[in-house]
Specification:
- This protein is mainly β.
- The chain has a domain of 95 residues: duf1285 protein (duf1285 protein fold), CATH 2.30.270.10.
- Helix content is 14%, strand content 41%.
- It has three helices and 15 strands.
- The protein is globular, with a radius of gyration of 18 Å.
């Protein structure tokens, strides 16, 4: 599989990691790098259910009607939180339940960069987050017991994950290498950590 670069793609071989993340956020449609609100500090008592759901493809719906405004989806994604009892949109004054079919975000792009002598894999989500895969933002794979189909996830923030869409998943697989200690197992390296990708074919 080739790793073709889009015409306006950033040069991932140069520049700082922070600069590259900012560039990828702009390419993902963010007008400027955003700062996330401190939802982990908010504990409002007011709770409600207004029929919000995030489907497996990352689309947002309310009472069966799909959100058509991408800016609203991105705004809501910044106040999404996962607690032990589920997913919530949280403000200082209220929290509203959100039903999530799989993961709340989709990973729509992966890139590679060299930083500090290590390969760093960057995952861009459908809502503009850019995550450097590392020990705090690990990759995990779950296999459907019925179909045998793997799904690959990366932790974005808190308990929120993104599931990789098929094109970035296959790109990630193309970067996998056999483990030194277990040559039958493939893994991918990022930020000095190796993440299992499954058995070698």
């Amino acid at each position: 599989m080739t790793n073709a670069k889009a015409p306006n793609a950033p040069d991932l071989a140069s520049g700082s990691l922070a600069d590259l993340i900012a560039t990828l956020q702009v390419e993902a449609g963010l007008e400027k790098p955003r700062s996330l609100p401190p939802v982990h500090l908010w504990n409002p008592a007011n709770c409600g259910d207004i029929g919000l759901e995030i489907r497996r493809d990352g689309s947002w719906w309310q009472n069966g009607v799909r959100f058509s405004r991408e800016k609203l989806v991105r705004l809501f994604s910044t106040i999404l939180r996962r607690d032990s009892d589920g997913y919530w949109l949280v403000t200082p004054h209220e929290k509203v339940v959100v039903k999530v079919e799989d993961a709340p975000f989709m990973g729509v792009r992966v890139d590679r960069h060299e930083s500090g002598g290590h390969q760093v894999i960057l995952v861009t989500t459908n809502v503009g987050d850019v995550v450097a895969v590392d020990g705090e933002h690990p990759i995990r794979i779950e296999t459907d017991q019925r179909t045998g189909e793997p799904s690959t996830y990366v932790r974005v923030r808190g308990g929120l994950e993104a599931r990789l869409a098929r094109p970035p998943y296959y790109e990630l697989v193309s970067w996998a290498e056999p483990d030194a200690g277990e040559p039958d197992t493939m893994s991918v390296a990022s930020s000095g950590v190796r993440f299992p990708m499954g058995r070698a074919a």
